[in-house]
Design goal:
The complex is a heterodimer of chains A (114) and B (113). Chain A has a single domain, classed as Immunoglobulins (Immunoglobulin-like), CATH 2.60.40. Chain A has no helices and 11 strands. Chain A has strands at residues 4-6, 10-13, 19-25, 31-38, 42-49, 56-57, 64-70, 73-78, 87-94, 104-105, 109-113. Chain A is globular, with a radius of gyration of 13 Å. By secondary structure, chain B is mainly beta. Helices cover 0% and strands 48% of the residues of chain B. Chain B is built from no helices and 9 strands. Chain B is globular, with a radius of gyration of 14 Å. Classes of the chains: A mainly beta (114), B mainly beta (113). The interface between A and B is medium-sized, with 34 and 27 residues.
């Protein structure tokens, strides 16, 4: 089974800190995605990448950036963390030819900004 | 991707069949209907996908009427472990940069003993 591994399950950071959330997949998937999940709002797409060094904005990119230097790794960066970025962050990956049934998600990182 | 509408929550008891309906009035010709399941503290996982009529796998069945403006996920004889949020997604299965999953709020299913 493909695995998507997120480096931390829980993180607590202070307002203004630069925060890195790391995601690694082990099945050579071209596409990688970052979502955030908040109660009552479902999952919202922040950024995605369909190739190394390529990135595209999702629905809510403000306050975030991403980095994809290697195919297996996709990092989400909070340049200056704020309390409204407290959320569950989910990483996902898929093969380029696969459709909506081929996404694999990580277990999530619950980030609290204080 | 087509917008979907699902009930916010549903309650059931162990052993019952649960049907969750999703409305997608603006579904396009090339769109498929896909359902994901999410347990607490986990990421979503794929459970079933269909285009028309009926699809069945070891987990669920998916019923899609001829006009494809709605679909129903059917979970036979649910157990406590089926307590989860179920998401209905509609879109093209082309993948790549066009294949982003857009989730709605999902349906929170609570199964009681």
């Amino acid at each position: 089974d493909v695995k998507v591994t997120q480096s931390s399950r829980y993180l607590v950071k202070r307002t203004g800190e630069k925060v890195f959330l790391e995601c690694v997949q082990d099945m050579d998937h071209e596409n990688m995605f970052w979502y955030r999940q908040d109660p009552g709002l479902g999952l919202r797409l922040i950024y995605f990448s369909y190739d190394v060094k390529m990135k595209e904005k999702g629905d809510i990119p403000e306050g975030y950036s991403v980095s994809r230097e290697k195919k297996e790794r996709f990092s989400l960066i909070l340049e200056s963390a704020s309390t409204n970025q407290t959320s569950m962050y989910l990483c996902a990956s898929s093969l380029s030819y696969q459709g909506m049934d081929g996404y694999t998600f990580g277990s999530g990182t619950r980030l609290t900004v204080v | 991707l087509a917008k979907t509408t699902q009930p916010i929550s549903m309650d059931s008891y162990e052993g019952q069949e649960v049907n969750i309906t999703c409305s997608h009035n603006n579904i396009a010709t090339n769109d498929y209907i896909t359902w994901y399941q999410q347990f607490p503290s986990q990421g979503p996982r794929f459970i079933i996908q269909g285009y028309k009529t009926k699809v069945t796998n070891e987990v669920a069945s998916l019923f899609i009427p001829a006009d494809r403006k709605s679909s129903t996920l059917s979970l036979p004889r649910v157990s406590l472990s089926d307590t989860a949020v179920y998401y209905c997604l509609v879109g093209d299965t082309g993948g790549g940069s066009q294949g982003n999953l857009i989730f709605g709020k999902g349906t929170k299913l609570s199964v009681k003993p």
